[in-house]
Design brief:
Blueprint: H1 16-31, H2 33-45, E1 50-52, H3 60-65, H4 74-96, H5 107-135, H6 157-174, H7 189-203, H8 211-225, H9 231-235, H10 244-250, E2 307-311, H11 330-338, E3 339-341, H12 343-349, H13 355-358, E4 359-361, E5 379-381, E6 402-406, H14 407-420, H15 424-439, H16 453-467, H17 474-480, H18 484-491, H19 515-520
Antiparallel strand pairs: 1-3, 2-6, 4-5
Length: about 525
């Protein structure tokens, strides 16, 4: 019997409302426990900034962070599958947008569809970026799956990065600079450009000439200093095979023939929206109120001028037992039970004005008057702290957003690229712009000093470690810097079980493809070397 009143993939995306529902399902992946657990385990726990409370045991996380895992480790499988789940949902939105029927020809209707499509492209790029930096080249799934051709071989790392770049560049011209008020939390042009700068940096090699470094300097000048950038510049449109009007149609810009006399016709020479005044290193909320340095990481700092993109969590708070929203208790679990600042990180931040903001010892009193109750001898990472005023009514609930992209990282990538391009004076200026804001915490004036390429690069990397600490990215940062083996082998000397000593240079910079993926494809999806 034929089902009545049911939607499937072929008839769901007929309206803008349905397309938005599909996009909500893509964002939903970012809120899941599985996604976020994989983020901190791979990006943070595998690095040298934190130590866990169970690293010497034989559980699957311990095997992973000690680089003694096998190809069937559950967390490796989960990292792979949860990001492909997000890609699948994003692909449904992107392919489904072709079927949307507009009720009117008003330009606002086109804008709604285009902004949904642009956000889906950003999210797909984010999921693929998670995969390529974790596993290297991975299969690029078609936007419309064919049940007779579900086995897709791996693309090269370079092909995956090119795919990510194209999504981010197109999304950047499709989206407004920043979503605010009730729409805060959606990815705008700023999020696309920030992630694009990061993606470019992951493809470049420190100390080696690369067009990627040059591209980061252009994007940094646009984002930070207000330099003009056109749609054609952003897209590298000269490399496209389709015509401009074909591209406009695919990206849901209104057809030129349908435009009213007062409606714009975008061209490759159209200038990108300004980002320079949307974000800042100083923290202010949406009303212009000045916030403290630490507020970025708490509820009052959500969507502030230092935050570019965050995973949104809302406390459901209806008082029911075990009332869990997705993303539940992640920060509390990490803060009290999982990870604590390492000795090497404490040594790095010693004397820095951010020390009391980013880490505190057992028994010390936090800024809200609450005693820090991490285990004795442990040092708490305060970016995961939930202040007493923000404690959810149900212990299993959560209202604390996770910061994914922050403005200071954009500035530091700009500084790093300028140094790579030989513009050391300007690089130092950008680096110290971050440090000056941090110095205001304790009213000190110590800044980084001019020097050689290596000396400036090392200072930038030091600042990255401190400013961006505990945001679940440290492992991947030292890998892309080409020094993971050195850092982790040095780190092994400070832990009783020598965590990091088993890291194999040339192998463990990426993780193995999950063994079940190799098996079910009969080897079409090949394994990484060394595994």
């Amino acid at each position: 019997m034929e089902l009545q009143g049911e939607y499937d993939g072929n008839n769901f995306y007929n309206t803008t409302y349905q397309l938005q529902v599909g996009l909500d399902a893509v964002y939903d992946i970012l809120q899941t426990n599985n996604y976020n657990n994989c983020e901190w385990i791979f990006g943070e726990a595998c690095g040298d900034d934190v130590v866990g409370n169970d690293e010497s045991t034989t559980n699957l996380i311990s095997e992973l962070v000690n680089f003694q895992f096998n190809t069937s480790n559950t967390w490796i499988r989960d990292r792979y599958t949860i990001n492909y789940k997000g890609i699948n949902r994003a692909n449904q939105v992107i392919s489904g947008a072709r079927r949307v029927q507009l009720a009117t020809q008003e330009i606002e209707q086109y804008t709604k569809v285009r902004e949904i499509l642009g956000q889906a492209k950003f999210l797909r790029a984010l999921f693929y970026f998670n995969l390529v930096k974790t596993f290297g080249g991975v299969p690029i799934r078609p936007e419309q799956e064919d049940v007779d051709a579900l086995t897709i071989p791996r693309s090269t790392k370079e092909e995956v990065y090119a795919y990510i770049e194209k999504d981010l560049r197109e999304a950047a011209i499709m989206l407004r600079s920043k979503f605010v008020s009730k729409e805060a939390g959606k990815a705008g042009c700023g999020a696309c450009v920030a992630l694009l700068m990061k993606v470019l940096a992951y493809q470049a090699t420190p100390g080696m000439e690369s067009e990627k470094w040059n591209e980061i300097t252009k994007l940094g000048a646009y984002f930070i200093e207000g330099a003009t950038l056109t749609y054609g510049d952003m897209l590298h449109f000269e490399n496209y095979e389709e015509s401009w009007d074909e591209l406009r149609a695919r990206l849901w810009f209104k057809d030129k023939a349908l435009l009213a006399s007062n409606e714009p016709y975008e061209t490759p020479e159209t200038t990108m929206p300004s980002l320079a005044n949307e974000y800042s290193l100083e923290t202010t909320d949406s009303y212009g109120n000045t916030l403290g340095y630490a507020d970025l990481y708490y509820e009052k700092g959500e969507f502030c001028t230092r935050s570019i993109f965050e995973v949104v969590f809302k406390e459901s708070a209806n008082g029911l037992k075990d009332d869990q929203n997705e993303g539940t208790e992640i920060f509390n679990d990490i803060f009290f039970n999982r990870m604590f600042a390492s000795k090497s990180f404490k040594d790095e931040i010693a004397g820095d004005p951010r020390k009391g903001v980013f880490i505190q010892e057992h028994g010390e009193v936090a800024f809200d008057g609450v005693r820090i109750e991490v285990p004795p001898g442990k040092t708490a990472c305060m970016k995961w702290y939930t202040p007493s005023a923000e404690t959810p009514s149900d212990v299993n609930d959560s209202g604390k957003n996770r910061r994914v992209l922050i403005y200071s990282e954009v500035v530091l990538f700009y500084a790093e690229a300028l140094n790579e391009m030989g513009q050391r004076e300007k690089s130092l200026e950008q680096l110290n712009s971050v440090k000056r804001v941090a110095n205001k915490i304790t009213n000190v004036s110590t800044l980084y000093k001019a020097g050689t390429y290596i000396e400036l690069r090392d200072q930038i990397w030091k600042e990255r470690r401190i400013e961006l600490c505990h945001l679940w990215d440290r492992f991947f940062d030292i890998v892309r810097q080409g020094r993971a083996a050195q850092v982790l082998h040095d780190f092994a000397t400070e832990t009783t079980h020598n965590r990091g000593k088993n890291f194999i240079e040339g192998v463990n910079e990426i993780f193995p493809i999950p063994q079940n993926e190799v098996d079910i494809t009969n080897g079409v999806v090949t394994q990484n070397p060394g595994y």
